[in-house]
Automatic annotation (TrEMBL):
<keyword id="KW-0808">Transferase</keyword>
<feature type="transmembrane region" description="Helical">
    <location>
        <begin position="283"/>
        <end position="303"/>
    </location>
</feature>
<keyword id="KW-0474">Menaquinone biosynthesis</keyword>
<dbReference type="InterPro" id="IPR000537">
    <property type="entry name" value="UbiA_prenyltransferase"/>
</dbReference>
<keyword id="KW-0812">Transmembrane</keyword>
<feature type="transmembrane region" description="Helical">
    <location>
        <begin position="37"/>
        <end position="55"/>
    </location>
</feature>
<dbReference type="GO" id="GO:0004659">
    <property type="term" value="F:prenyltransferase activity"/>
</dbReference>
<dbReference type="InterPro" id="IPR044878">
    <property type="entry name" value="UbiA_sf"/>
</dbReference>
<feature type="transmembrane region" description="Helical">
    <location>
        <begin position="148"/>
        <end position="167"/>
    </location>
</feature>
<feature type="transmembrane region" description="Helical">
    <location>
        <begin position="96"/>
        <end position="113"/>
    </location>
</feature>
<dbReference type="GO" id="GO:0009234">
    <property type="term" value="P:menaquinone biosynthetic process"/>
</dbReference>
<dbReference type="GO" id="GO:0016020">
    <property type="term" value="C:membrane"/>
</dbReference>
<dbReference type="GO" id="GO:0042371">
    <property type="term" value="P:vitamin K biosynthetic process"/>
</dbReference>
<feature type="transmembrane region" description="Helical">
    <location>
        <begin position="119"/>
        <end position="136"/>
    </location>
</feature>
<dbReference type="InterPro" id="IPR026046">
    <property type="entry name" value="UBIAD1"/>
</dbReference>
<feature type="transmembrane region" description="Helical">
    <location>
        <begin position="12"/>
        <end position="31"/>
    </location>
</feature>
<keyword id="KW-0472">Membrane</keyword>
Amino acid sequence: MKPKVFLEFVEIKSLIASVLPFVLGSLYAIYNYHQVHLGYLGLFFIASSLFHMATNANDNYQDFLHAPRDDNNQEFLEETNVVGVNQISIGQARTITFGLAGISLILGLWLVTRTGLPLLWMGLYSYAVGYFYAGGPKPISTGPFGEFFSGFTMGFMIFWISVYLNTYDVAPITWIATGQVLVASGLAIFAIANIMLANNICDMDEDIALGRHTILYYLGKPVMLQVFAWSYVAGYLCLIAAVALRVLPPLSLLTLISAIPVYRNTKQFLRKQVKRETFILSIKNATIICLSFAVFMGLGLLIG
């Protein structure tokens, strides 16, 4: 397989969605607990990146594998799905998917031996979501909860694991501490969930033709466009709440500046929902939000 095809198959461009929560969780741990385990973080970064690519690969080949073979879906099979477009064999797709996931799993299990069982339970949940998101008899992505699982798993779990790896030896896991991490990661959760929502909004007609009953099928496009817009507001409110709870540095509030380009992009998406033209706006929004969050949180650590 050519490198270009491989990178397209694993959707390397989407890797930013897992990298930034990793950075944010690490900064959160430094701010609240004043320590960092760089070695463990480095291994987790590699493991989570490999698994993110494996999940994307699994999504692509499962979509191709389970798409109905009829005239209505020929365009999807031959011109849209990366497996069909590049004539990737199912055997090759599975080898890449399970190879990446296997290496990630080995690294994760080694980290469990060093940091404790809580990481195992976090990891099992994440791996289960990663596989069943597109695999199994009823994939998560074809139902009404895809947005929740993508936002929660990537926005919160990666953030939380990054916190845990830095603090496992000094801070026990409690409901209060977990709740604080949840609020602090809220901005990332909503921004990442909106990527999935934008994708489903753009693919609504295609999804219905393929038999996928996403949340758009139940609530309709007008309602979910409003949810898309207000989700960003909810994320910014989480940021303000986290600063009020003193688990984020006050300078993090400068992240609110990102609302200006996010508002412009959101207005543009609300006017037109076309996969090849405006879906990218949701990715831009998530990148702008999480990157500015990381920058201003980092500055807050330096200045504070």
